[in-house]
Amino acid sequence: MLFWTIVKIAFRSLFANKLRSVLAMLGIIIGVGAVISMLALGAGAQKQVIDQINAIGANYVIVRAGQSGLHGVMTGIKENLTLEDGEAVLDEVPGLVRMAPVVQGGAQFKYYNKNTRSTIQGTSPDYLAIRRYEIDKGRAFTDHETKRMAHVAILGPVTVENLFGRSEPLGETIKISGINFKVIGVTKSKGDQGFYNPDDQALIPFTTAMKQLLGVTTVREIDYEAETGADIDKVLKDISAVLRPRHRLRADTPDDFEIRTQAQFIDSVSSVTRTFTILLASVAGISLFVGGIGIMNIMLVTVTERTREIGIRKAIGAKNRDILSQFLLESVVMSCLGGAIGVGLGIGVAQAIQRFAEFATLVQVSSILLAFSFSAAVGIFFGLYPARRAALLNPIEALRYE
Amino acid sequence: MIIEIDSLVKTYTLGGSVIRALDDISFQIEEGEKTAISGPSGSGKSTLMHIIGCLDQPDSGRYILAGDDVSRLSGNRLAEIRNQRIGFVFQTFNLLSRCSALENVELPLLYMGKHSARERAAEALRTVGLADRMRHEPNQLSGGQRQRVAIARAIVTDPAILLADEPTGNLDSKTGVEILDLFGELNAQGRTVLIVTHDRDVAKRCPRQLHLKDGKILDNHQPSGD
Known about the structure:
Number of domains of chain B: 1
CATH architecture of chain B: 3-Layer(aba) Sandwich
Order of helices and strands of chain A: HHEHEEHEHEHEEEHEHEHHHHH
Largest sheet of chain B: 6 strands, mixed
CATH superfamily of chain B: P-loop containing nucleotide triphosphate hydrolases
Oligomer: heterodimer
Largest interface: A-B, 23 and 26 residues
């Protein structure tokens, strides 16, 4: 029997029982809709977090002073990461393009009668590039200013708001821990990142910070930017190989520094959202399975109801496989139709979530294909038993069936 | 010889007792004959019809249809034989209710895998006098017209035999006569016709009658000129 003839017969019998077909498809519609929208939610969340991480900085590698001791618990910071360490790493490790030492401390900021407590980041001009800061107003400080320990500061927009309100900060002099600094620039807002707010701080030359504000000779961390496409795992090994002999660590002593990369951040976020996605998708998958059972139920009713038709078809020469393919196709048409409607529903729900609940969602083509082929598979799997039952009916008894 | 039946036996077990529905039956039918198979209910005529129609198989004996032994074939081969060599006409018409007359008649050709089914189906409907009812569905047709559609479906594949089971059972007597006349015409065109009936008047219209009782042929009335 010709394929299109069977498809036509399948559609005709579905349309003959519209309400029943829709009810049978409902499970698949809801299941596929749930799969699509849940995967969209998961993918959207992941994309949002990764975008946030990328906003923090370029392809960065951070070397931080301190020992991660037993079981990853910090057992105390040894103040032994020096600027010389930083420059040795930049010179000897291939794949690193620039560096910025960072010293950090809290300080009281003062402008006339306004006071605020904020953070100072002592660093070099490259820090802005590595951490992807943009200058909103004014300018960044220069390497020359760093060398001569200039008293200049770039403020975050929140700090500006706290100290100046609406008046112009550029060119004004503020006191940080009692020392005068000239405001030369304001950074663009990056948004609060939870663990620290890059919009509420002052960036000043590290030389000034170390000698005059904090009185330290070691740095808290050194940020590096790696070349795009650099082998990060190799870079990590190389950094370790440079620093361990410089710190005179024995082979059995753990590192007294910690190296973190952007890739690690993204990996940990991805694994969280992946778990989340798998959880959502498996709930949705179960509803798809239940939808399949709904289809099987209706197909069994259909086969019983149409026993006489099966008898007639067999009497005029339908083979078992003709009957099998007819009923199988009917259930596949039903599940695919339900799947197609479900895809539409899922996209609609994903967009509604994005609009009204303000969660980022991302409908991926792969999830549409997955849900659709899964629903077709459900149609075959759950249609097979009823179709087999139809195909194996005895024609004489089927013809006698009232 | 279109049908050769030799020592057919078919038994059923019903509630522990064995019933010999067909008890060693033998007969032959020539091509172009018009034969009635009659008998009271329980005589075995339905069983015989099922075997002749290749819906069932005998326990023993041989059934040769158009030169081929069809008494020991697989289910799928039997489906092919039914499709190509047998045209069924039933008492209750047995048309597919959601299909038009034309689609009903087309169906055996589609199962045969023919592509040009529509034209042949239309031709068959013209033969039975339903040229103007092709697009109608069964529930828009009268009983007589439905039976004509069924007959068109039976002849569309040009089968070796036309096998009718009480074809007038659900019709009023006037329409019944029209249908029997149509079988007469088809027989006159050279088709072999078998009519299974318990109605003596229907049987009498056939030149040859096989009368069954208790699984045996009582009366094998050969035409001698009437």
